[in-house]
Design a protein that fits this description.
Blueprint (H helix, E strand, L loop, with lengths): L5 H13 L33 E4 L4 E4 L4 E2 L2 E2 L5 H11 L1 E4 L5 H17 L35 H4 L7 H10 L3 E3 L4 E5 L22 E6 L10 E5 L7 H7 L31 E4 L7 E4 L5 E3 L8 E10 L8
Parallel strand pairs: 3-10, 4-5
Antiparallel strand pairs: 1-2, 5-11, 6-13, 7-13, 8-11, 8-13, 9-10, 9-12
Helix pairs in contact: 2-5
Length: about 325
């Protein structure tokens, strides 16, 4: 099966082989520089100025410099500092939030289940752990693999006392509890997520609700990295009107689609000129936490393998929960 953006994949992988520079970590909304320092992503060193990336379900072709880097945080930082940063930036990229050994066990178990469904084939060089798609029809929807939601290795990542639960409790200043439904996504080649915010899907409960996006498999740009629209959480400019209109919709009550657009550029010009798209590469153990009104989407998975990730929603246990 030939994935969307196959030319983009060849371009990315060629740059990975030729370059010795690394993706940089900088302030939100600022483009990374090939000469800037920083830790390489899980896929290897990347010359970030020369990459062309594909965005969303339609594989919109965009230069790498269109995307700035995410600012990294540590789970060991004081909760008060992290709360202030979350309010200011609209997100927290928390390197090493989860126990990497627990995440790796979950990835191995989930990949095994995909293989049992005939969705993964052994790669002669990389083996079944690479998650190479067999070509069998599937979707990236969170309800595509409901039978995998109760995988014990997967559930360990979010149980009471887990690193995620302890961290979110500190951030929320109360006993944090996730929604029972965990949005497990096994994203095949060719798939990507359009621009949207989460409030339109789960806005009936407390306003102090957070999304925690967790890569279960390592995620390089080519696997369909999470993308955030920096500054879109602020009630200013065109985003103020967007939040007062689209942001108040309820996909079930109003019978509307939750996604806004497949065009990332739309939210960086005109009334949205304050918007700036940012992305990163992720290792097992990393996570991104953000609120309900931050616009986000993903790059297109232009690799030959599944990207496994999960969206969990967290709130204080005593707060009103969306009944869905």
């Amino acid at each position: 099966m030939k994935a969307k953006g196959d030319g983009t994949l060849r371009h990315i992988m060629a740059k990975r082989k030729r370059t010795g520079s690394s993706a940089a970590t900088a302030a939100p909304g600022r483009a990374a520089s090939a000469s800037a320092g920083g830790a390489p992503g899980p896929g290897g060193d990347v010359d970030v100025d020369l990459l062309e990336l594909a965005f969303g379900p339609d594989a919109q072709r965009l230069p790498r410099t269109f995307f700035g880097p995410m600012r990294a945080s540590s789970p060991s930082e004081p909760a008060a500092i992290l709360r202030a940063r979350l309010e200011e930036d609209g997100y927290l990229l928390v390197r090493g939030l989860h126990d990497a050994s627990v995440v790796k066990a979950a990835a191995s178990s989930l990949l095994g289940r995909l293989a049992a469904k005939g969705l993964i084939v052994d790669d002669a060089r990389r083996g079944s752990a690479a998650g190479v798609h067999s070509g069998k029809a599937t979707t990236a929807g969170s309800r595509e693999h409901l039978d995998m939601q109760d995988d014990p290795h997967f559930c360990r990542m979010f149980e009471d006392g887990s690193r995620a639960q302890v961290f979110l409790s500190g951030l929320l200043e109360g006993d944090a509890h996730p929604f029972a439904f965990k949005f497990l996504r096994c994203v095949p080649p060719g798939a990507g997520t359009p621009v949207h915010c989460d409030n339109v899907y789960m806005g009936r409960g407390t306003g102090d609700l957070l999304t925690c996006w967790t890569p279960v498999t390592p995620v390089g740009y080519e696997h369909g990295s999470l993308c955030l629209c920096a500054n879109s959480h602020r009630a200013g400019g065109g985003f103020r009107k967007l939040r007062a209109t689209y942001g108040r919709l309820d996909v079930d009550r109003d019978r509307v689609q939750g996604s806004l657009s497949s065009d990332a550029r739309e939210f960086t010009t005109g009334p949205y000129s304050d918007g700036a798209w940012i992305t990163a590469e992720f290792a097992q153990g990393d996570a991104v936490v953000f609120g309900m009104h931050l616009l986000h989407g993903s790059l297109t998975n232009v690799s030959d393998a599944f990207r496994i990730s999960c969206d969990t929603r967290w709130q204080r246990r005593t707060d009103v929960m969306d009944e869905r």
